[in-house]
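@channel anyone free to eyeball this complex?
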Amino acid sequence: MTPLPSPEEIKTLIEAGVPGATVTVIANGSPSAQHSLLLDHEHARAVAEFLRDHAELKLDFCSLVTGVDWPDTETTAKVKVKKLVAGPDGVEQEQEVEETRKTKVPGYLEAVYHLFSMGKKHGPVVLRLRTANRTDGTHLPSLTPVWRSAEFQEREAFDLYGIVFDGHPDLRRILMWDGFVDYPMRKDYVPPEDDILVTGVKA
Amino acid sequence: MEQDLKELKIELSKNGIFTTTLEEIYNWGRKNSVWPLTFGLACCAIEMIATTMARYDLARFGAEVFRPSPRQADLIIVSGTVTKKMAPQVVRLYNQMPEPKYVIAMGACAISGGPFRDGYNVLKGIDRYIPVDVHIPGCPPRPEALIHAFMTLQKKIDEQALRGADRPRHLQADLPSEFPVPAFGAHGLEPAQNDEVFLAEQGNPLKVIQ
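replying in thread with the prediction:
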């Protein structure tokens, strides 16, 4: 039994095996140190097939697919800027002024895959795929053609997060009914008002 | 008058003569053969199954015959979390049962959604759609609690008068025996509750009047 190569080593293996693929290692700072590999959409399918078929890795089992919602965030930073400011005598002078700048960081949806090898008895290798944004660019390539076990879990991520998996054989809602329009696991989901306990009329 | 009759009955029974009324014998028969529907939703169903087994032995109350068809059942024990996706089926099963029929809401989930009430797919109490006769709190309630609910239901059946304005629903032709099945809407179930059932019940433990 060979130990599982580190994420950096897997990244080098992928970049050698799949030309053009961009792989980013996302470090996990927690004690588990379960680092993951962020893949680009274009080569995700090829990378998945490479990881499954590679003689040393042989990641033949996808145990988990889940969605993560990263909402839009706003960061405020105080920046010192040199500016022309009119003084009390009406003459403009250059002064250093503190300004608060707000930068909007657009959110995205993420699909996370956990891969194991049955034959080599090692794992997990964590893959990540990120959508362009949370509104109109929610497409990701499906990895169901590579790992059949991803089928229902990709449907679940589609159902609850609204990630559209291109190439999925049967992408339908799985937990909620077909006419449902919301994505309940997103951070900005608002449940219907009638779910609130207090009902009735004023006495 | 009624007191005299009761005393006469006791006097007669002391002399080996058994007298009864149609109402008494009818309710006695009904309360001792409540057949529940074979129907469980979540972990409460495990407690319900335990109740029917030898240790707790629900058969002592004449209720061991769990019927696999709603057509033969008198009682539906809503045992567990009712998801919004499941709720129409629960109401439909209830509608398919013949009158007289009874409902036990077993556990916190069936009463109000319980620990899962913040869930996006959890119905906040089955009494939004069907009339519940006995609520059992607990998460899950122990078999003793279910037996207590059974005895409460038996007492309720026993006290039902066959005549008069407060006779049970199945003896009043103008009262409904079926309730509208909620439909799947874009954001939740439509309607969110059946006002005739949910708000009409003054004793509803969930109803908060502001």
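from a first look: Residues 136 and 186 of chain A are 15 Å apart (CA to CA).
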